[in-house]
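Before the break, one more example. Copy the sequence into your notebook; we will annotate it together after we see the structure.
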Amino acid sequence: MNRRNRYAKVCLFLWVLGMCLAAHSLQAQSVIPAPLKMEQGTGSFLLSEKTKLYTNLQGEEAQLWEECLQTLPLHLKKGKKRDTRQLLSLLITDKSDLLPSPESYTLSVTPERIRIEATSGAGLFYGMQTLLQLLRPSGAGSYSVGAVEIQDTPRFAYRGFML
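Here is what the structure looks like once it is written out:
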């Protein structure tokens, strides 16, 4: 009986330990509201003064995004599409199955780059808000973002205040 009781305590301890570890990894990459699809990767991207910004936006929309990004504590330099490392890309693309709504976006973070794709400025805005939630201070004026693949689209055609 004593041996059985000890075995039960060890199993309970291991179960609690496993739940704590699982809860920690979920909390590390939490986004509000929860995106449609979110897959955590390995590694992280270091957002710093060395990070370059590439966008295919034109005219007034590009100017608005530049002003918006100046509110960040980092000053990003302009980059080129062919840059493969330390690049933050904001891209407007054609409507597709992954991006069915103007407010849909995909956010891809790897150790080499961050890429936000949407079919409109509204989608880029929501993708950037998600990215800002994922930023973690990394010291010396830089930020770390864990590798992740996020696909999000509104679940309803209306917002709560429109009801």
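Helices lie at 2-28, 59-69, 121-134. Residues 49 and 87 are 11 Å apart (CA to CA). Try to locate both features in your own notes.
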